[in-house]
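As a warm-up, study this chain.
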Amino acid sequence: MNHWQLTQTTRVVQQGGIIAYPTEAVFGLGCDPLNPDAVLRLLALKRRSIDKGLVIIASSIEQLKPFIAPLNTKQRNTLSASWPGPVTWLVPAKPETPVWLKGRHDTIAVRVTNHPTAAALCRSVGHALVSTSANRSGLRPAKSPLQVRNYFAKQGNQAIDKIVMGALGKETKPSTIKDLATGNIIRPA
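Now compare it with the structure written out below.
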């Protein structure tokens, strides 16, 4: 992604827009996680229940600190051993973490991405991003900008504001999701 595209995409996110962008295995939908209007619009676009919660990606663990409760040394070491990379962890959420991010859970799904475009976006906006697969609930995640366009044809104010062009990472399936408290795999890769 060139500097102009990165600047333009950053502006869209900062203005409350929804973006589609390449991740490790599929295209993701993202927005500013602390902008309730953007997140609720994204949930409506996907037809996803607020109760399920969303994944938050970052370019560093520092960008996740507004959302996660303090971790002990063992927990920090566990996360550090898999990041940056394609593992999403369910970690204890801070009590003030918005319900539109954690859903009905007391945990939040977070990942420090190793995808160059996704990480560059997080660095450019200066904070973490929502990262949910680019599809309507129940459909396969989009693997190309064309699939994103087909899934989300412009429908009034529910259009995606920007599709970031770029290659997917080398993973074949969306990220593994693990529970930090138990180490259990919730969703295999």
